[in-house]
Amino acid sequence: MKTLVSPGNAICCSILSVCGIIFLTLLGFAFDARVEVLTEFVTDPDDPHATASACFTAAIVYACFLAFCGCQSLVHKFNSRHQIQL
What we know:
Layout: H1 7-32, H2 36-39, H3 48-81
Keywords: Membrane, Transmembrane, Transmembrane helix
Transmembrane segments: 12-31, 51-75
GO molecular function: RNA endonuclease activity
């Protein structure tokens, strides 16, 4: 099996993806609940529900990156265990 990213990059991408998923999901729930701090100013979005949908969509994109980088980490582990050590 061939890898596309290095082991360090795969782990870093996985960690950042988990953080992004958590942050965007919480932010999406906050916009969907119309939390006053996020929706009371003039510069805030006119449609908090649409903003929440965008946050959830971005969290799904991060989940796809997490799946890809997680698979890359597993491929690195598989390849390192099956290489002949001299």
